[in-house]
Write a structure and sequence with these properties.
Elements (H helix, E strand, L loop, with lengths): L2 H30 L2 H46 L6 H84 L2 H13 L5 E5 L2 E2 L8 H6 L7 E2 L6 E3 L2
Helix pairs in contact: 1-3, 2-3
The structure holds zinc ion.
Length: 233
């Protein structure tokens, strides 16, 4: 195949490889991004901890209420069982029982208020767990989808790379060196297709004399403006 056509094909394969490489990098970056899942895990963990703390506090209050109940029963036993004889002692016991009952009543109020808090925290925990489940499912779906896409891209790249090597092997060494040098200096584009009378890369009109030189299939003409190699349409 003529050298200019091979150079143009080589350019197409280098463009394709660059595009596939970007798509693959993008798929891999998306695969690595688990920020939403980690945030959901943290939120669910915090909701669990909050529930556990409130439930512990509830059990502590219940324990206190039980202990006070036992003390009240004991003191009332002494009060009504004739354990205390003197009126002064009786009055003291009555005050003690009243004070214990008032304390128990306050703690019971605290316990009722705490129950509301627990219900709220449990509802928040359920919501956080549902969000976490959703994120886990989304992550599994994403891994399956992007994993397959990345494998397909790797296959495409391997094929494009094989083609690219085939073209490189056919192109004259000096031309290939010029091609590589131009690609380095010109943003990856060494060969520009003619678009009518203009250079497909820089869009500047190519004068007739240079246009005529593009008809030579073995030696590429250069764009007088951007100096890239020109290939026919
Ligand atoms: Zn140009």
């Amino acid at each position: 195949m003529p050298q200019v056509a091979d150079l143009a094909s080589l350019q197409e394969h280098d463009d394709l490889l660059a595009r596939l490489g970007e798509e693959l990098a993008d798929a891999r970056a998306q695969l690595a991004d688990d920020a939403a899942l980690r945030a959901a895990e943290e939120a669910a963990g915090a909701a669990d901890e909050r529930c556990a703390a409130l439930e512990r506090e509830q059990r502590r209050l219940e324990g206190e209420i039980d202990a006070l109940g036992e003390r009240i029963a004991r003191e009332e036993g002494r009060l009504y069982g004739g354990g205390a004889g003197l009126p002064k002692e009786l009055a003291g016991l009555q005050r003690e029982v009243a004070s214990l009952k008032a304390r128990r009543s306050r703690i019971e109020d605290d316990g009722i208020a705490a129950l509301d808090g627990i219900e709220e925290a449990q509802a928040a925990r359920e919501r956080a767990r549902a969000v976490l489940e959703g994120e886990r499912a989304a992550m599994a779906e994403k891994r399956a989808r992007l994993g397959a896409a990345a494998s397909a891209l790797e296959g495409d790249m391997a094929r494009a790379n094989g083609e690219r090597e085939r073209y490189r092997a056919r192109i004259d060494g000096a031309l290939l060196a010029r091609y590589d040098d131009l690609r380095r200096r010109k943003g990856g584009v060494a060969v520009a297709r003619m678009r009518g009378d203009v250079c497909g890369a820089c869009r500047v009109n190519v004068p007739p004399a240079a246009r005529k030189r593009t008809l030579d299939p073995e030696s590429p003409a250069l764009c007088p403006n951007c100096e890239r190699m020109l290939a026919g349409v």
